[in-house]
């Protein structure tokens, strides 16, 4: 596997862009899918957002200046596309983002692509009760094991703020999961 700077150079060269883009897809498609899926919940929605993410990446790769890692840039685009998707859907349905998330979570058990058990479903419901930023931070740290340094680059905030958000999210989840 070639290093990131070589891939970027090939992506920004018209002669090698298509082959490099196929490699980019191969390298990041699955990780981005699961990142998006944790945000938008439904498989079909995650597929749509992933496609939009890669379209945006393809159109704007020439503007990538390398001020962050390619991985961070891709995650930032995927995160923003996911949030935009939720906002547009909630607006179209004339409901709040929280109601949209709750609706997606409530339909999760019926999703043929959801392979979780009752405990995993309860955890997803608990995560859905968190504010959006805490959901992002929790999912990225707990499930994807992204370092705070990389997360700070992706979400464009400080490591300290992320650590605080994660800590608060964990406390809220513990409370939710132990109250019954």
Q: Please tally the β strands and state the result.
A: 0
How large is the radius of gyration?
17 Å
CATH homologous superfamily assignment of the largest domain:
RNA polymerase sigma factor, region 2, helix turn helix motif
Q: Any low-confidence stretches, pLDDT <50, length ≥5? A: none
Mean pLDDT over all positions: 89
Strand composition percent: under 5%
What is the C-level CATH assignment of the largest domain?
Mainly Alpha
Q: Tell me about the biggest sheet? A: none
The tally of domains stands at: 2
What this model shows, in words?
The protein has 180 residues and is an all-alpha fold. It is built from nine helices and no strands. Helix 3 crosses helix 4 (70-93) and helix 7 crosses helix 9. The mean pLDDT is 89.
How does the SSE layout of this entry go?
Elements lengths: L3 H8 L5 H24 L2 H18 L9 H24 L3 H10 L11 H11 L3 H12 L4 H8 L3 H20 L2
Describe the structure concisely for a colleague.
Residues 121-173 form the RNA polymerase sigma factor 70 region 4 type domain. Belongs to the sigma-70 factor family. ECF subfamily. The chain has helices at residues 4-11, 17-40, 43-60, 70-93, 97-106, 118-128, 132-143, 148-155, 159-178.
């Amino acid at each position: 596997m070639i290093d990131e700077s070589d891939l970027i150079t090939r992506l920004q060269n018209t002669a090698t862009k298509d082959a490099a883009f196929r490699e980019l897809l191969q390298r990041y498609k699955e990780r981005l899918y699961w990142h998006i899926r944790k945000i938008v919940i439904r498989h079909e929605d995650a597929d749509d957002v992933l496609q939009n993410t890669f379209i945006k990446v393809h159109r704007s790769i020439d503007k990538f200046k390398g001020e962050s890692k390619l991985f961070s840039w891709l995650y930032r685009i995927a995160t923003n596309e996911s949030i935009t998707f939720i906002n547009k859907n909630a607006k179209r349905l004339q409901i709040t983002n929280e109601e949209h998330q709750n609706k997606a979570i409530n339909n999760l058990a019926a999703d043929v692509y959801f392979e979780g058990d009752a405990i995993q479903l309860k955890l997803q419901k608990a995560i859905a009760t968190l504010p959006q930023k805490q959901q992002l931070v929790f999912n990225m740290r707990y499930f994807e094991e992204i370092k705070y340094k990389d997360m700070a680059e992706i979400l464009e905030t400080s490591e300290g703020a992320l650590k605080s958000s994660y800590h608060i999210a964990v406390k809220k989840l513990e409370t939710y999961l132990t109250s019954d």
